[in-house]
Amino acid sequence: MSYEINRRLSAKRSPLETSVEVDAVTAGIIRGAFETHCFETAIHLGRAASSAIINQSNERNGSIIDANGRLAGISVGIPQLLFISPLTVRWGLEHYEEDDWGPGDVFLGNDPDHGGGHLPDYTVYAPCFDSAGKLVAIQALQAHQGDTGGKDPGGFSVDSLDIFHEGLPIPRLKLVHRGKRKGDVLDLLIRNNRLPSFAGDIAAMIGAAELGASLLDGLVEKWGADTVRAAINFNINETERRFRSEIEKWPDGCYEADVWIDHDTVGNEDVHVHVACSVAGDQLTVDMTGTDDRPELVNVWNTFSNSRGYAMAQLVSMVDPTIDKNEGLFNAVEMIIPEGTIAQPPPNKPAALGAFHPACEIGEAICIALSEIVPHRSSPQVYKLGMPNSVIGFDENGQMWMDQGVDVRASDASATEGIDGWGSMCSGLGNLILGQAEDAESRFPVINISREMTCDSGGPGRWRGQPGTLNVKKVLEPTMAIAWMVSMKHPLRGLRGGDDASSYSNHFEVGTPNEYKIENSVRADLPAGAVIAYQYGGGAGFESPLLRDPAAVREDVLDEYVSVAAARERYGVVVTGTAEECNVEVDLVATQKLREQLVAERG
């Protein structure tokens, strides 16, 4: 059934009916208002929410969907997640009459088989109507919830066999009817969540959606419903036109890439993602045929909506960034996502971990493929961690606490043409704010011992990837820890001859006779005082490291990003002195000779 639903929900939608024509200036003003509304509602949600994952990390996103289910506007947020809400809202629109939509209503959906991402990503949405009672647009808010009522706290189960192990799937649910909250429905949701903060989070989502609907009401009153509809049509058409004009500049051809996940959570190895990007004039086709479809795979099933959203997040990073983000993007790209693969799984497959992998591999494969023709815009919008180390316990009152391990780190910040990898996280995480040590320690019984960059963990290249960090943490009370390790065998790939990033690794009970390395997935009970050490992979390199300016390598050695040995072995740069003594110098004659030798050896 879900395949049929996916085909229907993702089908191209018609323009809104309107008798008005607008110019570019008017359309731009209304587009700007949409973006402002989305930003204001997302900020409202963040400030009103109770849990750290929303009010501290910024993992909340606003979008506006028109009456035909087309994405009409978004806020600054997390790129991949901004493209997911429309299909959830479209499922709600299919039941418009049955669910008695009207002013003051608020709805919720999260079901992967009915347009959603993975279960923790709740979409709450509220409609706006014109004076005649006709639907104009819908304000949607998406936010990650810390628990979903599944068999394991947090919803990330490494051994789930179906979606019901992970939590409560909600195709659509009315939370507010004509401005009155439905207490029985809200009690049901709150009862099916372990976190006491959830009541505040769902209240904040409702309030933000209501604020968005009110702001849309004011916009419609000011400009008139038909003018707003015409502006939506104009902006979507303009985005499609501009996106196609970018594609038309690319050389025709088919550009392919293969990437792999080390294993699923039970050890099935080399889970495969294949992408072929075909350019023909102004038409781009992204075909995922050949992606893994082994039925025995466990917990590497991405949702259709996520696969579609992650692919688009990578694509829009490879064109002019001033192109507006709306439904015109999807109108300009044909996506072929084969049914039964890990990119569009059979019904009821567990999907929580699939939102990490293979979701990230889809974007990575697109970036690798298109780096052949648009190297200046090739930056992978991915994070290659399997999942963070989540540690979970209960206080003296039996209330659950959970440190989800979304800590400040350097990881996956790859180089692109002309720019070394930089920052504490990859560009694909958008405006996400990673947790500070002081904040985690004030909320949870943990101590963050260190978060240090690791020398030689950035992928060498003409432009170098940012090093990863080793994050070391001690738990002060007995806790349960959940982790899934990947990117050890298949780390983040280098581009155009650049080296791959370093591998991830993870150890529990560090410094004791019981220390062990996490080789795949684990659900472990840790004693008080246990130390866990998570080595994040760095970013990958861009173009051959033998092309890097020797002076830049010298600076890397001084900064302890690159060791003296790696400068010689990977970059072909011979240096004297040490970083400790700050007397590093390049031997240019020896460097030229060594590079000539390495070029011959490496071909």
Q: What is the CA-CA span between the terminal residues?
A: 52 Å
Main sheet strand line-up: 2-1-5-4-3-6-7
- Total tally of structural domains: 3
Biggest sheet record: 7 strands, antiparallel
Beta-strand level of the residues, as a percent range? 15-25%
**How much helicity do the residues have?**
25-40%
How many strand elements? Answer: 22
Shape label: globular
Total helices: the number is 16
Structural class: alpha+beta
Q: Which stretches of 5+ consecutive residues score pLDDT under 50?
A: none
**Whole-number mean pLDDT:** 94
Our Rg estimate from Cα atoms comes to 25 Å
A few lines on this structure:
The chain is α+β, with helices and mostly antiparallel strands and 603 residues long.
Describe this structure in words.
The protein contains 16 helices and 22 strands. The protein has helices spanning 2-10, 24-48, 52-55, 79-82, 85-93, 163-166, 183-191, 198-223, 225-248, 304-316, 328-331, 359-370, 437-443, 550-558, 564-569, 588-602; strands at residues 60-66, 71-74, 106-109, 121-129, 135-144, 173-177, 180-181, 253-263, 269-280, 283-287, 333-336, 387-394, 400-403, 446-453, 469-475, 479-484, 505-508, 516-517, 521-526, 531-535, 575-576, 585-586. The protein has a 7-stranded antiparallel sheet with strand order 2-1-5-4-3-6-7. Strands 14-15-20-17-18 form a 5-stranded antiparallel sheet, with helices on one face. It has a 4-stranded mixed sheet with strand order 8-9-10-11. It has 3 domains: 2-239, no CATH class; 383-543, no CATH class; 550-602, no CATH class.
